[in-house]
Amino acid sequence: MPTSTPRSDAQAPYDLVVVGAGPAGLAGAVTAAERGLSVALLDGDARLGGQFYRHPAPGLGAARPEALHHDWAAFDGLRRRWEASGGVHLPEHHVWTVTPERAVGVRGAGADGACWAVHAVTGPDGDGERPALVRGRAVLLATGAAERQLPFPGWTLPGVVGAGGAQAMLKSGLVLPGGGHEPRVVVAGSGPLLLAVASSLVAAGARVPALVEAAGFLGYARRPGVLAKVPGKWVEALTHGVPLAVHGVRPYARHAVVRAHGTERVEAVTVARLDRAWRPVLGTERRIACDALAVGHGLVPRIDLGTSLGCSTRTTEDGAPALVVDASQRTSVPGLWSAGETAGVGGARLAMVEGELAGSAVAVRLRGCAAEGSPARTRSLLRTRSRLRAFASLMAAAHAPEDGWVDWLDDGTEVCRCEEVDAGCVREAVDDLGARDARTVKLLTRAGMGWCQGRVCGPAVACLARGGAARTSGEPGPLPGSPERRPLAVPVTLGALAALEETLAPAPDGDRSRTTDPA
After folding, report:
1. Which end of the chain is more exposed for a tag (fewer CB within 10 A), N or C?
2. CA–CA distance, 316 with 323 (Å, rounded to integer)
3. Which residues pair with 253 in a beta bridge?
4. d(C-alpha 439, C-alpha 221), whole Å
5. 271: alpha, beta or left, given left = phi > 0 and alpha = psi -120 to 50?
C-alpha cells in the first residue's frame, strides 16, 4: 500500500517526484514505481484523480461516484496498481516552485550531484503551518490545465460559473449550480468540454435550455483522416450527445452568450450569432431565462513550474502556450519530464498514455531498466499518442477563439476581477497611453496584479492589447496567453517563505524527517 508519509531520510532524494495526481501524473508514477523506482506523488487535493476524476467528499456518502465520470475503469485500474506499487502519496501538497541544486552531501543524487528540490505548502488550501521539501533525481510535471475565461457584460454576477467549475461542483459536492429543484443552467463557451458538462448536468437533474457553442463544428470535417483514426472519440461524443437530444437540449452553433442579466444573481442571458471573427451579428440576439450559466472557452495548460525553470514552450493551435517535449516526454531542461495537458490539452486518455511514456523513460534513464516486452508496448503507446495528439490539434484549431470576441465588451465590463479593472481602462491604456502588450497594460492599470496573478484575465488582457497593436502597426501583437515566468506557481504566505530557511537547513541525525515534511 502506498503511504502518505515521506521517507525519514530527507537527504536521500526519490528517483522520481511527480507533481500532479491526475491521469498523467498517476500513470507516470505507477509506471515508474512498478519498474523499481522510488516515487513520490504530490498533489494539492486530498485524493487521487486530479480535476478529471474528482471524488465526492467522503461525508456525502455517494453510493456510485463512478456514475459521474467517463471511463472510470481506466482510472480505477491505475489507482489499484498505485496502491500496490509501494510509492509515496503526499496529498494536500501545493507545489509552488521547483529548483535545481547541487546536492552536496545528499545521498542518492546523480553522479554529477544533480538533484531537484520540490517546494510545497501543505494543507487543504496551502495554509499549513510549515512548508514541505521533497527532493528527487527527476521530476515529472503533470499539473493539468485551467479554464480559459473570456469576459462579457454580467459575467461577475452570482450564478455565473466556469463550465469546468460546474462539473467540479457536481463531482465533488453533488450540487448543481443555480440551486433549487431542476435548476435551469445554460452551458456556453467553446470546446468539447461543454458536451460533457451539459450531459452531466442533465443526468443529475438540471434542465439545460441551451448549449451555446461559439465555434462551429465544420472545422473537424477539414481533416477526415484524423477523425477516422480515433473512433473512441466518436463513441465519447455520442455518449454525451444522446442524453442531450433525449432531454431536448437545444444546441446553438456559432453563437455566444454576450450578456448576462440579473440584480442579485443571474436571471437570464442574451445569446447572439457570431460571424467568422466571433463578432456578434446585430439583430440575432435572443434572451434565455436561466438560474445559472456555466461558461468556458477551452483550457489553457498550467505550465508555471516549467517556464520558471526555462522549459521551451510552443503555441498550440488555439493560441495557448504548452511545454515542448520529445518522444519520451522530456522537456528541454535535462531531468524534467512533462505529460498530459502541460504538453497540450488532449484529454484523459492521451494524458495516461503520455504519463506511461514518461514513467518508462525515467526508469530507463535512471536505472537502465526496461520491462520485458516494453519495446512493443512503447511502439504501441507512441502510435496511440500520435493519433490522439493529431486529434487534439484538430480540436484546438476548431475551437480557437477569434479576436472579434472583444466586441462583446462594453467599457464598463470588468476584465480583471481581482483588481476591478474594466475594459474601458484597458482600452485607454492601449489606445491613449500606447500599451502594446499585456505586461505594459498591467503596469498602467494593475490588470493581472491580483490574487490570480493574471491566470484568469491574462488571455483577455493580451487579446485587447494585441488588437491595439494591430490597429496601430498593422501587425499582430503578442499571442493571447503567451507564457510568463512566475517564481511562484501557487500563492505562498510570507510565513511559509520565512520558514524556508529552517526547512532547508540540515537536520540533526535522528530528526531528518522534519526537513522533508513538517506534517
Report:
1. N
2. 10
3. 213
4. 38
5. beta
DSSP 444-503: HH-TT-STTTTTTTHHHHHHHHHHHHHHHHSS--SPTT-----S-SS---HHHHHTHHHH
Residues in the chain: 519
Give which of 513, 449, 117 is closest to 305, Cα–Cα. 117
d(CA 306, CA 154): 35
Cβ atoms 182, 203 nearer than 8 A: no
Angle 200-68-150 (CA atoms, 0-180°, nearest 5)? 45
* Dist CA 176 CA 145 (whole Å): 23
The residues pairing with 269 across neighbouring beta strands, listed in sequence order, are: 260, 288
Give the type of residue at 461.
Answer: V
Q: How would you class 158 by CB atoms within 10 Å of its CB: exposed for 0-12, middle for 13-18, buried for 19 or more?
A: exposed
**Residue 92 is which amino acid?**
E
Q: Is 411 exposed, middle or buried (0-12, 13-18, 19+ CB in 10 A)?
A: exposed
C-alpha atoms less than 13 angstroms from C-alpha of 410 in its C-beta half-sphere: 7
| Under 8 Å between Cβ of 152 and 258 | yes
Residue type, 353: V
Q: Classify burial at 81, counting beta carbons within 10 Å of its beta carbon; exposed 0-12, middle 13-18, buried 19 or more.
A: middle
* Residue in this structure with the C-alpha cell 530557511, named with its chain if needed: 501
> Residue 113, SS3?
coil
Euclidean distance between CA atoms 186 and 155, whole angstroms: 13
Helix (H) or strand (E) holding 97: strand 93-102
Q: Where are the beta strands (DSSP E) in 163-201?
A: 185-190
CB neighbours of 283 closer than 8 A, spacing ≥ 6? none
What CA–CA distances, in Å, run from 362 to 24, 28, 84, 252, 367? 14, 9, 20, 46, 8
Between CA 418 and CA 188 the distance in angstroms is: 23
The total of other beta-carbon atoms located within 10 Å of residue 104's CB is: 8
Torsion on CA atoms 103, 107, 108, 113, rounded to nearest 10: 30
Report yes or no: 333 and 293 within 8 Å, Cβ to Cβ.
Answer: no
Q: What is the pLDDT along the chain (519 residues), one digit of tens a residue?
A: 455 555 544 557 999 999 999 999 999 999 999 999 999 999 999 899 888 888 777 777 666 766 677 788 889 999 999 999 999 999 999 999 999 986 444 444 544 457 999 999 998 887 776 789 999 999 999 999 999 999 999 999 999 999 999 998 888 888 899 888 899 999 999 998 999 999 999 998 999 999 999 998 777 888 888 888 888 888 888 888 898 999 999 999 999 999 999 999 999 999 999 999 999 999 999 999 999 999 999 999 999 999 999 999 999 999 899 999 999 999 999 999 999 999 999 999 999 999 999 999 999 999 876 554 478 899 999 999 999 999 999 999 999 999 899 999 999 999 999 999 999 999 999 999 999 888 899 999 999 888 888 888 888 898 888 765 444 343 433 334 445 677 788 888 887 777 766 555 433 333 333 333 333
